[in-house]
Amino acid sequence: MEEMEEELKCPVCGSFFREPIILPCSHNICLACARNILVQTPDAESPQSSRASGSGVSDYDYLDLDKMSLYSESDSGYGSYGGFASAPTTPCQKSPNGVRVFPPAVPPQPQHHLLPHPGVLPPIPRNSCITCPQCHRSLTLDDRGLRGFPKNRVLEGVVDRYQQSKAAALKCQLCEKSPREATVMCEQCDVFYCDPCRLRCHPPRGPLAKHRLVPPAQGRISRRTSPRKTSTCTEHELENLSMYCVQCKTPVCYQCLEEGKHSTHEVKALGAMWKLHKGQLSQALNVLSDRATEAKEFLVQLRNMVQHIQENGVEFEACLVAQCDALIDALNRRKAQLLARVNKEHEHKLKVVRDQISHCTVKLRQTTGLMEYCLEVIKENDPSGFLQISDALIRRVHMTEGQWGKGTLTPRMTSDFDLTLDSGPLLQTIHQLDFVQMKAVPAAPILQLEECCSQTNSATLSWKQPPLSTVAVDGYILELDDGSGGQFREVYVGTETICTVDGLHFNSTYKSRVKAFNASGVGQYSKTLVMQTSEIAWFTFDPASAHPDIVLSNDNLTVTCSSYDDRVVMGNTAFSRGVHYWEIIIDRYDNHPDPAFGIARGDVLKDVMLGKDDKAWAMYVDNNRSWFMHNNSHTNRTDGGICKGATVGVLLDFSRGILLFLINDEQQGPVAFDALEGLYYPAISLNRNVQVTESLTRAYRQDM
């Protein structure tokens, strides 16, 4: 709440607002302060007399007060009207906030019979002008004077609540000797109670049970706050504000719409616009709140950086002293100069970080104050009063949020000392000993655990550089072990910060780590992440890698083809070791085609029968017999075919390098295949006369 206090003080008097009014520039000022800074402009005749005296200034120069120089930018402390050669200069004042304030105009002495009664404010002189003490915009008052400016009832209510919260604690009204602090107030009894007196004099039973008890501060405010007055139009004082002019962005009355300048403008219901602007302000506050949270976290990082700089500085000095003490006497004469360099760098880093902390703290205090003020404004139930200030507040919130833009929350200095001592030269070169810049290698990456996962026999890892690291990174190296506690091996080298590794072993535990590199070398490893693959091997057919003529259904478990030519489809899981078995059921078999079942590499041809190239090993079968085929070579002819409802089993044994096929549990094979290192996918080729469904997948052994 303390940060909000600056929002509640008048820029002229420096005190809390009293009867604040809203200037056209959206800034606020006390009504009394507005009277004090009024400036009386010359009468309408003055331009003519000045022009007659040869001033050469046009009527427009006198009337357009926004273009007049009302104060000196050279900080002379005096202000004058540009264009009036005969106008005397008047000393300016400054408010407690440091804002330049103009003194009250001295009107001509009125005749005694025209003096107002005591206690009545004197009338505002004709041709009066007021300058906003914050943005220095000037404007001429009309016949209504200061009454033409709307009162900021919302701000007045916020000030009252803030002052009430700062007031001394209320005392119980029923304690006899030393009154204790009140804890509740009964709205019906209008009495403040402490806890003992409430239990004794106001028990929660009988008729008193229906009384409403509120906190003391709320009770005090309800006592002192008069019923909310209905907002009236500044131009038609007898009319209530009921609509909102979208073009002028101000509440208006019914008479303004009938007769005034708003008759042709777009208007909307006051209540609807009140809710709309409250929602817009709330949304803007949410974004600003996120920026404030980031700023707080950033300040914590900066404060930690101060500690790291201190620690690194001490460590660096110790190393430097140890090296210098190990050298001959000539090195000791150079030691003082080197320590001075380190201390200078040390102090420079601390100064830069502390200056940034100070700057960010001030900005965060202002942001927090604005947020608290806006939250208090949102609590107001006065639609017209809220709408009078909502646009300005929304602009301020957006503008403040923009000040926390890109680069604001980035450290201007690192905590590392990019210096190292070269102690290799011979003794005769000791007088040329100097610091050389340390080759900066990247820091250890941070694994983003929330994005790392494993699925079936694949693992996805994600990482990032530390937030305070400013060292350039050329790429990353991802390493995995073999799933059995063996040596790490590189599985990815590149610039991406996320990688999916396929073809891992089922039911295996893998360790992974990543490091960054640049032209200076390779950095440290990240922390090691342990990932577990699925215990049971399973797959479905992969539509992404299948031939376009392949038709999949049943959650990619059932496959057929739209072409009369053979087309290849593979599973979405690859195998690299162990023993695996899967079964395929023949759902439809027409006109005696030759579907093929087996395994394939990822780059197998998709528009020919499986086994036609050297990337696949398969058994193709018709209704009478089967053949094994690899690289378009046909071998191992065996009797026994397939029909609708038949089951084809495939057994893949990496340890022995064999494929075994079964048709309705009758063995067809086995045949050998080159079990080279790499990934092998379950695969099928078929045409439109065949439809099959995968029904079973098993991993018999994974430790081969």
UniProtKB/TrEMBL annotation:
Location (main, coarse): cytoplasm
Keyword Repeat: yes
Entry's Gene Ontology molecular function annotations: zinc ion binding
A Gene Ontology cellular-component term: cytoskeleton
Cellular localization per UniProt: Cytoplasm, Cytoskeleton
Alphabetized PANTHER family for the sequence: E3 UBIQUITIN-PROTEIN LIGASE TRIM36-RELATED (PTHR24099), E3 UBIQUITIN-PROTEIN LIGASE TRIM9 (PTHR24099:SF13)
Protein name, UniProt field: Tripartite motif containing 9
Organism of derivation: Electrophorus voltai
Lineage: Eukaryota, Metazoa, Chordata, Craniata, Vertebrata
